[in-house]
Amino acid sequence: MAPKAAPPPPVAEPVVHIPEEDEEGEGKVAFRLALAGVTDLPCPLETLVAFGGLCRENRSAPAAESESPAEFELPKDKFIRKLGQELCDDVVSKQLEISLCDAANENALIGKASISLLPLLHDQTEVFAELELQLTEAYHIKWWPEKEAELLEAAGGKDKKAAAGKAKAKAKPGAPGDEAPELLKRPEGFVPPRTIIRFSVRVDELVGPAEDRKDWTTLTMKVVGAFALPDRLTTLGLASPADEVELHQLKYRAMCFGAVLENGELARPKEENPEAPAAAEGEEAAEAPAPTEAEARERAERFGRSVQFKEPVVVRYRGARFLREFRQMLNSTGGTWVYFVPEERTSNDPKKPNLPEVGSLSKHFVGKAWVDLRALIRPGARATEACCELRTAAVGAEVMEEEPTLQASRAFVRLALELRGAPVAEPEPPIEDLRVLAPPRKPLGKFPASSEASLMYREAVEASFAAICRDAGAGAAGAAAAVQQLKKAGSYDDLRENLRGAVIRVFRERMRKDTSAVPGKLLQGEVRDELVSGTYTHLKEAAEAVLEEIRLHELASAGARAPAAAAQLPLEPESPNYFRSEADNGEPGGLSPVAAGGGVAEEARTQRAREVLVAASDVAGRNARLAFEAELSGSWPRAAEMLQSRLLLDEVRCQPKEWIAYAKFCARARGRQAAAEEALRQAVQLIAEGVAPNSREDEQEVDMMLACLLLDRGRHDEAIRVFREWHLKAPSDPTFKFFLGLGLFLADEEPVEALRLLNAVGGGRLEPYTACLEKLLDYGLPSLAFTFLDQCKVLPDTAQNEPSLVLIDARASCLDRDFSAAVTRAEQLTMSKGGEKATGSAAQEAWRLQGECFFQLGDMDRALQSLNQAMTFERKFEEPGFFIRLGSVLVAKKRWKQAREAYLKSIQFLPTAEAWSGVAYAEYRSDELQMCYEALNEANLLDNERSDVWALLALVHLRLENWTQASHGFKQCLKLKADCEDLLLEVAAEFSRGPPGQSRQPDFAESAARRAMELRDSGQAHAALAEALVVQGKALEAADEARAAMERLVDQPEPRKGIYDRALRWCDELGRHDLVQALHDLQRSCDQKAKRSP
Question: Hey, how many other C-beta atoms are within 10 angstroms of the C-beta on 750?
Answer without folding.
Answer: 14
